[in-house]
Specification:
CATH architecture of the largest domain: 3-Layer(aba) Sandwich
Strand order of the largest sheet: 6-7-8-3-9-10
Radius of gyration: 17 Å
Low-confidence stretches: none
Number of strands: 10
CATH superfamily of the largest domain: P-loop containing nucleotide triphosphate hydrolases
Bound molecules: adenosine-5'-diphosphate, magnesium ion
Structural class: alpha/beta
CATH class of the largest domain: Alpha Beta
Shape: globular
Length: 234
């Protein structure tokens, strides 16, 4: 479904990604693991069109997308749920959600998609008139995810959804992500919460200093010495 091939991405003269390659299949949960500053967000932004690679390619459903705009890429079915949630704090829950359905492809089905998001997150329906800034961290993450789903994506890229949330809330977020997979949506999940992430992911990549240093099935990686030492503290 998605193929990133030999991608180099720069900030000005500073290279942040080095020959990164990866694949995501339909309805797969693929994790991207790595320390702060490893280049995880840079890779996501390179896929979603916020950044463009200096070399290499990104292909989605057979089409080159690495020179397309963010908007064109959302239209094709990739939704990026950003690090830090990026809500509009002084807009209501409902208005924030509707911002995710501005594209031509889904604008007409806005109400239907909103109903589906409310089914997935009943708490957001109850809070639909409330300003986003008055929500708890977990609820804000749900709004960010709901907004991403308003565009009916085939692939959801989710950047550190568990960041700053209490353990019980994290569990709920991870359950919801598994539910998305059950609906046939592929997930590219970026996390520092390695144990829980590998428990729900099918496969994972480990990024270090802008390079993929390890990849494999999640079960296999949970047994891997490097993962156990560097990321699980075992
Ligand atoms: N806007 C930017 N300008 C310059 N350098 C950046 C910018 N954003 C990130 N970087 C650098 O790129 C590297 C990777 O950052 P990032 O992708 O945010 O890592 P991660 O998401 O894994 O924490 C870091 O060294 C970071 O300092
Ligand atoms: Mg990041």
């Amino acid at each position: 479904m998605l193929e990133v091939s030999n991608v180099d991405t720069f900030y000005g003269k500073i290279q942040a990604l080095w020959a990164v390659s990866l694949k995501i299949d339909e309805a797969e949960i693929v994790a991207l693991i790595g320390a702060n500053g490893a280049g995880k967000t840079t890779l996501l932004n390179t896929i979603s069109g916020l950044l463009h690679p200096a070399s290499g390619s990104v292909t989605f459903l057979g089409k080159r997308i690495d020179a397309l705009t963010l908007h064109a890429i959302v239209e094709l079915g990739i939704s990026h749920i950003p690090e830090g949630r990026r809500l509009f704090p002084d807009m209501s829950v409902r208005e924030n959600l509707e911002m995710g359905a501005y594209m031509r492809r889904v604008w007409k089905q806005k109400q239907k998609n909103l109903d589906e998001v409310y089914q997935l997150f009943p708490i957001l329906k109850a809070r639909q008139g409330q300003l986003a800034r008055t929500l708890s961290g977990g609820e804000q993450q749900m709004v960010a995810m709901g907004r991403g789903l308003m565009s009916k994506p085939r692939l959801c890229i989710i950047d550190e959804p568990s960041s700053g949330l209490a353990p019980l809330v994290v569990e709920e977020i991870f359950r919801i992500i598994q539910g998305l997979q059950d609906q046939g949506i592929a997930i590219f999940l970026i996390e520092q919460n390695v144990q829980q992430t590998l428990e729900i992911a099918d496969r994972a990549y480990v990024l270090e200093n802008g390079r993929v240093i390890l990849e494999g099935g999640s079960k296999q990686l949970l047994e891997e010495e490097l993962i156990r030492k560097a990321y699980l503290g075992l």
